[in-house]
Amino acid sequence: MQLDSSLVRDNSRLIYINNPQRTNEEYEFTGNEITTSKYTVVNFLPKNLFIQFHRVAYIYFLVIAALNQLPPLAVFGRTVSLFPLLFVLTVTAIKDGYEDWRRHRSDRNENNKESLVLQIGEFQPKRWKDIQVGEVVKICADEAIPCDMVLLGTSDPSGVAYIQTMNLDGESNLKTRYARQETSFMSFDGDLICGIIRCEQPNRNIYEFTANMELNSHKVSLSQSNIILRGCQVKNTEWVVGVVVYAGQETKAMLNSAISPSKRSKLEQAMNKETIWLSVFLFVLCLVVAIGMCLWLIRHQKQIDTLPYYRKSYLVKGKFPGKPYKYYGIPMETFFAFLSSIIVFQIMIPISLYITMELVRLGQSYFMIEDKHMYDSSTNSRFQCRSLNINEDLGQIRYVFSDKTGTLTENKMEFRKASVFGKNYCNSSMVDDNTQDTEITEATKSAPVSTKGKNSKPDITVDPGLMGLLHKGIDGDEKIYAHEFFLTLAACNTVIPIHNQPTSVGTEIHQDLDYQGESPDEQALVAAACAYGYILFERTSGHIALDVNGEKLRLDVLGLHEFDSVRKRMSVVIRFPDNNVKVLVKGADTSILTILRKDQENDDITLITQRHLTEYSSLGLRTLVLAAKDLTNEELEKWQLMYEDATTSLSDRSLKLRETALFVESNLRLLGATGIEDKLQEGVPETIECLRQAGIKLFDLATSCRVVLCCRVAPLQKAGIVDLIKSRTDDMTLAIGDGANDVSMIQMADVGVGICGQEGRQAVMASDFAMGQYILCAAFSTTSALTDWSSVFYSVIYTSVPTIIVGILDKDLSHKTLLQYPKLYEAGHRHESYNTYLFWLMMADTIWQSLVLFCVPRFVFEESTIDIWGMGSLWTVAVVILVNIHLAMDIQRWVIYTHVSIWGSVAMTFACVMVLDSIPIFPNYGLVFFIFVTYSVRSCS
């Protein structure tokens, strides 16, 4: 086959059908293997460490550990000083490694699935990861689609396929896709399939596809209705055959599955800011120690040989001198004192806090998952916590952004009202005064009055007056308008009728029909037309067949202009059996009413219809306006030329199609309007009112509740609205959605899909900050009063468990109380439980308690022979007792686990101190018993 020179003019890709070798030799296409994992065995360690050290606190502790390795600054044991950082890095690495192992396992299972691929004249199984662009693939019913494919044929003679796109866009209704008539009758049993597809470069737009196909020098257009995408499933179709155009990471599903941005909770962001302030405080404190050390050395520089810790040689038992002590002079000793102080006071910025927060969030997520109020019995599914980084933000939400259809509503459309030729009609559940006196004729009584099928909703009860109008044996404008009104409902759509059982065409055919369509609105309108006697029972890409009150009517479809967000309408060009050509249009009122004929723009019928639309909208109904137009032969010829050029164009196809549609969508004749109800899901009105009372503002992306409305919003526009709120306020945002078109909005919001809970837990930092209560004990000396292991055990054993248990289990109010009094939620907006003021108040309280804990034991044992390490053991026990009492004062709900963790922590501290002080190699060996005995004796005396 000779390649048309026009095919290589722009940046498009060429696919040689059933010739993957030539396709992939000329162009560098990716394979079909997908990878969602972050790491490999080789890069795991360096890459994971690089990601972890994005936390500034980790770099801080790495520097501290490095300083402690220098001989002049070795305050703690060199190995022990590395333990906290290594512990945190190891735990986080194990968690990240496990998560990535699950991704690897998922990728392996996905890549090793099999599909039938045309090889050597027959379809043979082939693993997904080995499928190449250009190959012809066969997918059977209920099977997943391995890559993006252009349909060549289906088991249906008309070339129709039904696809479920739930994994792609969250919509449960089936979508219809078509194979071109030029390929739908091909034989796929040999290697006779050949041709060239020229398509656009890979992109993430799942709603558009621009391409054309050349078969035997004949060029045909391809659009979004001719492609099936990876991640979807074939339904209600025995098999489909297609050619691969995008594979692997280039498929639209993978391009839309980009890694979501990393989110940090407001608490963690506040903690990072306060860490900076703590660092400033630490710097000042270390500077004070260094200055004090300098002044002390100046005062005692002649006594350095005899003073403890600064004599020029160590003294040991016996007559033999110890190793020499390196003295660097006052300036360097002052500098070393400053660095050593940083090491001693490092506990002020607790590295264990990050692990504590992760464990608290893990425990909270367990209770969210097990919450019986978030269990759906119909699908046997529970709430899933996809991110552990933002649990506490659920109690701080101020703005909620929600998709409407399927999220707030049931996505079950019911035809409720119609305005035809200026008259208002409705079903029996929404009776209007205008229909009370309408005459019911004999024809009305014998006409079909309901429709019911697998995908249709409860029986549609027709309006007797409108049914009587359609069956009256008289002519007139009102009946003509009503006839064209229902012709438009039945024909201007993409709905496919499915026959459950073979049946003859007649007035009862609707009882054996189901309607499948991409839009539930269209299904409801077609079902309504069926109920009124305009039954769509056949559709192909070239014609539709209707049964109009028992009379068969075949209409040729010359062209279809699909709905787009710019025009906000769709139209179909139909040729009737008498060769008359009409344009049938439906769309939003703001779109249709501006393109009516001049004589209809402000006539009585138009004004009355507008009032009806206002009434429908006030009732929360979804409205559409219907119009029509007769095409002259000259207009038809010009439109056909424009339409053919636009549908085969690869550049600016959307713009050309829009211009072609605008040519025929003008000077229309208004037919009427419809009102469709999409009921809110159970509990939604009460929930919205509860959110309002709680001070939460709701942005609903197209509904009629008392909230801010954003209608006909594109995915990036949804994200832009969320970003606007985030950039203008400091309030927390939450986004709820159910499809790929909501992903951008969900990623932009502070919190993705979730529930609004009670006030966030009280700061888990309290006990770690309280460790600063012993830091003044060393005065101007940088010799630590604690043993190395006591310093490590403080955060790991002594105080961590109570903090975690309280963080998970404690709550101030029950969920019943919070739901009964939503205004209590506003405490979270005001940050009453944790804010900057409380942080500095806590710091001041810490300093006060530190002075008390230091001074009391210091003066009690002033004349004793207890050394600094013995005092350190006493200070350790005192700090742990005080921290746990302080934590106990903040507990709102006491349970058995709380008691065990609080008082067990104190007992564990006593036990550990006794064991550590019983080890001969530690400095305070045997002195802890003397401390407690002496203190007890003095207390009694």
From TrEMBL:
Residues 774-932 form the P-type ATPase C-terminal domain. It is found in: Membrane. ATP binds at D403, K404, T405, E522, F563, K586, R622, R712, K718, N741, D742. Mg(2+) binds at D403, T405, D738, D742. Keywords: ATP-binding, Magnesium, Membrane, Metal-binding, Nucleotide-binding, Translocase, Transmembrane, Transmembrane helix. The chain crosses the membrane at residues 56-74, 276-298, 335-355, 866-887, 894-916, 922-940. Its main location: membrane. It holds the Pfam family PhoLip_ATPase_N. Its cofactor is Mg(2+). Residues 15-80 form the P-type ATPase N-terminal domain. The active site is at D403. It catalyses: ATP + H2O + phospholipidSide 1 = ADP + phosphate + phospholipidSide 2. It is a multi-pass membrane protein. One of its GO terms (molecular function) is ATP hydrolysis activity. GO terms for biological process: phospholipid translocation. GO terms for cellular component: plasma membrane. It comes from the Eukaryota. It is an enzyme of class 7 (translocase). Its EC number is 7.6.2.1. InterPro entries: ATPase_P-typ_cyto_dom_N, ATPase_P-typ_P_site, ATPase_P-typ_TM_dom_sf, ATPase_P-typ_transduc_dom_A_sf, HAD-like_sf, HAD_sf, P-type_ATPase_IV, P-type_ATPase_N. Belongs to the cation transport ATPase (P-type) (TC 3.A.3) family. Type IV subfamily. This is Phospholipid-transporting ATPase. It comes from Ambrosia artemisiifolia.
